[in-house]
Design a protein that fits this description.
Blueprint lengths: L2 H21 L10 H6 L3 H29 L4 H23 L3 H23 L1
Helix pairs in contact: 1-3, 1-4, 3-4, 3-5, 4-5
Length: 125
């Protein structure tokens, strides 16, 4: 199975990782109402939750881009490199979000989004 497909799997579960970070060690965490509890958090826990939410937003276009590039026989090496870059940039994005490094976080977001666009472009040409 190509590396790009493994990257889809990893990207699908990155939001879960950030949710776990937001919840880890939290006082009075209520698993009966986790969304309510997360919405009431502040600081780094709140930012980890926001990274989770953004991860769910970024995933569908990325997965579609990889599958499109694969279906249209784009170069496997390029597809793998772009998919891996996306995953690494999304991990960096989440870490920077939690650390409250907003400018660098935005650059990581832009890079990951650029990878998604590039996957569609290599499929088109």
């Amino acid at each position: 199975m190509p590396l790009a497909y493994w990257c889809i799997l990893i990207a699908a579960f990155l939001p879960v990782v950030f949710a776990g970070i937001a919840k880890a060690g939290g006082s009075r965490f209520n698993n009966r109402r986790p969304r309510e509890w997360l919405a009431a958090q502040a600081g780094w826990r709140q930012r980890a939750n926001w990274a989770q939410q953004n991860g769910f937003e970024a995933f569908p276009p990325f997965a579609a881009a990889v599958l499109t590039a694969q279906q249209l026989d784009a170069g496997q090496g390029v597809v793998n490199a772009l998919a891996l870059a996306f995953v690494l940039l999304r991990v960096l994005y989440g870490a920077l979000y939690i650390a409250d490094r907003h400018l660098l976080r935005s650059l990581a977001w832009l890079g990951a989004t650029g990878c998604t666009v590039a996957l569609f472009l290599v499929a088109a040409f």
